[in-house]
Amino acid sequence: MEIMELSEQLLNHQLGRNIYDDSGRLLLPKGTILQISHINQLLNMGYGKLAIGTETDADNINDNESSGEINPLTHAFTVAVDNLRDLMAKVSAGHLVGQGEVEETIELLFPGVMETNNILLNLQDLRRKDEYTLQHSVSVSVLSLKIGQLMRVPQHDLKMLGMAGILHDIGKCKISSAILNKNDSLTEEEFQEIKKHPVYGYEIVKNMKLNDPRIMLAVLQHHEHQDGRGYPLKLAASKIHLFSKIIAVADVFDAMTSERPYRGKMALFKAMNEILTSSVSHLNPQVVSKLRTYVLSICPGASALLNNGNIGKIIMMNTDEPSRPLIQIGDQFINLREQRDLWVKDIIM
Ligand SMILES: [Fe+2]
């Protein structure tokens, strides 16, 4: 397969990869013999290069972006961010918004999240862009959908959970951006104001007249803790809805593994360890356990950056000690359970 400039010279050439339209739908499948109408259509859509010919094994490791192909799930994430930006602008301006836009966003995300095993790979793409609050809300929705899927939440309920994830921080629209974007530490007063966002969010979502009360509950309860020391209502674990518990775990995991202006992102294993520790007092242990099993299941095949600067491929997880997997570097295999002077600093999906 070859990457070639898109022009009429590609007439009768065979397309090497799928091409998707703006809504993430398949437009031209790989193997299509390109006609002038295809070429003109792709030029109009802004494509500059195309993958041409038959895919070989070596092609599989090429970056999708270099071929001009848009990964449909990553594209759905981008559209979701755009939709949420519009929604938040309307809420900030005091306009009433309906549930239709949120439903539309979930319908767009849902199939890709259900079918994709390693969603962290797509979330990584999303995080390369700005606007943390928007990305974070979409990421929390996607992670909640994945955790819910693994917990066998029925499909209709899953969509409600996804909507709650998108909306979980909508109350931040009512908090001054000077407080939200402050890079220094917050004063007690500012912190108390930020802590009002679940209640603000609950009121906004109530006005949206969403026909499922669990969405309102999840927005209101996503900062409640297992030990009853969360906010705003200091609810005991038995009073916290499952949706709120799932969103709380997705929220903490995404925040820890995202880069912020005032701190770097936490490496995957370190974040999982922190979350496991938090599950004693803050987070629901069953939900944390599902997330942990999921994260460990998608690690084989990923690249691991070791403390000595070498990068290897994760071959197998050691179940007793998952942070010390079997790594391959070139033709050498290193079992980190045995080689204790080496450890994984970060995982690159
Ligand atoms: Fe929040």
UniProtKB/TrEMBL annotation:
Q: Where is the HD-GYP domain?
A: 111-307
Q: Which SUPFAM superfamilies match?
A: HD-domain/PDEase-like
SMART domains noted in UniProt: HDc
Q: Which PROSITE patterns match?
A: HD_GYP
State the InterPro entries in the record: HD/PDEase_dom (IPR003607), HD_GYP_dom (IPR037522), HDIG_dom (IPR006675)
Could you tell me which NCBIfam families the record lists for this protein?
A: HDIG
Q: Output the PANTHER family linked to this UniProt entry.
A: CYCLIC DI-GMP PHOSPHODIESTERASE PA4108, CYCLIC DI-GMP PHOSPHODIESTERASE PA4108-RELATED
Q: What name goes with this protein? A: HD-GYP domain-containing protein
Instruction: State the species of origin.
Output: hydrocarbon metagenome
